Amino acid sequence: MQLSLPELTLIIVLFATVALIISGRVRPDLVGLMLIVGLPLTGIISPEEALSGFSRSAVITIIGLFIISQALEDTGIIQWIAARMKAIGAGSEMRLVALFMLAGAALSLVMNNIAAGAVLLPAAAQVARESNVAPSKILIPLSFGTLLGGMATYFTTANIIMSGILRERGLDALGMTDFALVGGLILLVGSAYMLLVGRRLLPANASSAQTASAYLLSQSLSKTYHLDERLWELRVLPGSRLAHVTLEQSRIGEALGLTVLAIWRGHRAILNPLPVEMIQPQDYLVILGREDRVSLMHDWGVEIGRPDAKSNGKRDYTVDLTEVVIPPRSGIIGSTLTDTRFRSKHQLTAVALWREGRSYRTDVGKLPLQVGDAILMVGAPAKIRSLAEERDFMVLQSGHRYRPPLPHKAPIALAITIVVLLVAIFELMPTSEAMLFGVAALALTRCISLDEAYRAIEWRVIFLIAGMLPISIALVNTGLGARIGELLVGVVAPYGGMTLIAALFLLTMLLTQVIGGQVVALIIGSIAITAAEQMGVSPQAMGVAVAVACSTAFLTPIAHPVNVLMMGPGGYKPADFVRVGLPLTALVLITLLIGMRLFWGV
């Protein structure tokens, strides 16, 4: 089999694209832009075809979904649901798992999976603590619930993309009912597995607090981030180089990477002191840092620890500690807290950071922030409440929540959303037009401002999808998609259509674990549809199967952003996802094949 020059060129482009995304050295949206520019230069597609991704109905639908999801948040509908979950959730571990899995699945039916997980995360963490249940027992089920729910609806990115690919090929597109039957069956089986088996495989990490009280919550968080061995008390002696200088002039942070959490002066506690705070002789500094760095301060004229051990036998946890998560749409991703002048702006101190199962307690302000980073912060309650109003941060502590700005518009926003869903379900107009109708109605009724609507759109996702969509055109233009389809059919033809579906599910699912379902749908989708046509399998059935595989993101935290979001608050390690997700993945495949036989006659 000899490849033509266009086919060989496209293979090189595909491998380079996947390698760049896996490496993480180039942002995925930039990879999409590179494809828009680079593919026409190869002559495989025209410039018009390269830019056509921005006008595809799939992209318009995804944009509309982002905006409607934001309107539901701004009007408080999602927060109301989360509050109801908190009100009825306290109880047994099994009841909490069931409650938040089903809540996550229900929200993902009508909104973006990431948004569904994000709005329920604070409620899940708090209810778990109030119920004396480790959050690690609840958050992976919540994440998996949103993914399972996404299999049963049209409004999931991969599902929208697969429907768009079918439409571009001149075939019948997919709708809500096409996903509801098979996806609903998978949701039932997956939920039963998590309730009966999966939750027992989850770790009971130490990130749970015994009650919601600030004192015990602070102790629990300090244990999670391993702070007991890193908190130090220093007494400033007369003649010390620290005496009569400001914290900024002392260079404690710059020279040693240490953080001053508080100053005890007589009977007065100065929590989270400002850089201009003057250090006085006989002050006690509460410092966070490594022992080897603290020991260097012996020569600074300080006494490490108090001589009267009895008076200091128990640490004072009166400082208000809270956990803050970096959400997917945060504007500070890639920046450090130092870059953003976080401490000066918010008057809060970042004490420790939890990332991918590891706690960082030194130079936290110098670490470039990533999605899902969980940061332990200390400061006055009023400052924490102010931080909760910032959309770049997600505050998990009870009492410090993002307050929706337009709660009085909730009934209108809910009514518009229901109308959009009904129009899409009964196919009264194309889904992309229904979404734009919803956006216009929300803007006209002032349920969301246009400025907020534009900010709600994840342009990185839009440019990635629009940039990758022309790959399906290139696969058709070069004939490479047909050639790969013929190879697949040649291998599995003796075993029937179910084997083809199973093989493509496994291939798609494995790729999803490392590069994400959005990208995989754009690469595998066209090939899968071609193979189905060649073998006489329903292209729509194949579209559903590939879309389900793109949501089967259970084996790695990087497979889907909603998994990453749960990593820090749950204290998870990557192995936790494999242990719980591998049996669930097998069940999804088995249930999918049963659904293909029952509902599609494959």
N→C terminal distance: 31 Å
Shape: elongated
Content of β-strand: 5-15%
| Averaged pLDDT | 84
Q: Widest sheet: strand order?
A: 3-2-4-1-5
Number of helices: 27
Major sheet: size, sense and barrel closure? 5 strands, antiparallel
Considering the chains and any ligands shown, give keywords for the structure.
alpha+beta; 602 residues; single chain; 27 helices; Alpha-Beta Plaits; elongated; five-stranded antiparallel sheet
Short structural summary:
The chain is of the alpha+beta class. 58% of the residues lie in helices and 8% in strands. α6 (93-108) packs parallel to α8 (139-150), α7 (113-130) packs parallel to α26 and α9 (157-168) packs antiparallel against α25.
Detailed description of the structure:
It contains 27 helices and 10 strands. With 602 residues, it is of the alpha+beta class. The chain has 3 domains: 7-205 and 411-600, no CATH class; 229-312, Regulator of K+ conductance, C-terminal domain (Alpha-Beta Plaits, 2-Layer Sandwich), CATH 3.30.70; 321-395, Regulator of K+ conductance, C-terminal domain (Alpha-Beta Plaits, 2-Layer Sandwich). The strands form 2 sheets. The protein has a 5-stranded antiparallel beta sheet, with no helix packed on it. Strands 8-7-9-6-10 form a 5-stranded antiparallel beta sheet, sandwiched between helices. The longest helix has 27 residues, at 574-600. The protein is elongated, with a radius of gyration of 27 Å.
